[in-house]
Amino acid sequence: MRFTLQSVPTNPADLEAVTLLLGREPRAEFEVVVRGENGEPVVLMNAALMYDSTPMPTLYWLVDPELNRRIGTLEAEGGVRSAEAAVDAGALLDAHNAYAAKRDASLPESYEGPRPSGGVGGTRIGVKCLHAHYANFLAGGVDPVGEWVEQRLSNQFEESK
Fold first, then answer.
1. CB-based contacts of 10: which residues, under 8 Å, 6+ apart?
2. According to its UniProt record, what is one Pfam family this protein matches (predicted)?
3. Residue 160: pLDDT above 70?
4. pLDDT 10s digits, 111-139
5. Counting beta carbons within 10 angstroms of the beta carbon of residue 89, is it exposed (0 to 12), middle (13 to 18) or buried (19 or more)?
């Protein structure tokens, strides 16, 4: 699969596509930051606050159904533990910190409510969700777990040929 990294404000077609992909209306403003070969949404960048002003901990959201299925299979096969064991702990901590800093920087200066917590996938340490790390990686984040997922997906693709 080929992806295009771009940040384009939401348009009605994206809103309709994302609503179908999520199976519900989005709970926050978003931009499609990664698109598939045919322009379909692959990764969303969510606003820091949901419509009800609750903090949104997930900055990047993977919405591609095929990638979600394949990564779900990786997780079911023990991928979270395998990824955590395979990547450098310092590099993972750096990814969490960079993710949290980018997300938190988008909070309005006037916001005084609870802050989102954690890094990628809402966790401060370790690996919680391969989908979240892969979304961060596809959106241009330096993420060793996202790279690990990319390698596994590439291997799956090669094996299926």
1. 29, 30, 31, 32
2. DUF501
3. no
4. 888 888 889 988 878 899 999 999 999 99
5. exposed
